[in-house]
Amino acid sequence: MLCPGDKTSYCGAGNRLNMYYSDNSTKASTDPMNLNTTGSYAFYSCYKDSPRVFSVSASSDSMSVNACQKLASAGKYTWFGTEYGRECWMGNSLAAGTANATASDCNMACNGMPGQLCGGPSRLSLYTRIAT
Predict the structure, then answer these.
(1) Domain holding 59: CATH number?
(2) What pLDDT does 13 receive?
(3) Where in this chain does the record put each WSC domain (predicted)?
(4) Contacts for 62 with CB less than 8 Å, ≥ 6 apart
């Protein structure tokens, strides 16, 4: 039976209905991602950590961007980055000779928060303090 409000569409009839299927459903992403901001820091870039960008570090099997940010904030560092899923690196300036990496190089989930990206092999998910 044609729909009363749209004579070009079918609306079922006589205890029957029209069924439709769409395979264009949206799926919530479960891929890890960089945080836009965390505390007083903002995401800057995926960064090459060779040569080494910072000299101060901490590591933990429960590392996350938030955990690294808290360490950097407590140490009053301008920059911090997560690397290899479990490392946190901090400093007040970027070492000479270092450079951006391709965004896809920072592809490892944080050990302590799998929904967050924590850099990659020799790659930092780099954050900088937001000016206040």
Answers:
(1) 3.50.4
(2) 73
(3) 40-130
(4) 111, 112
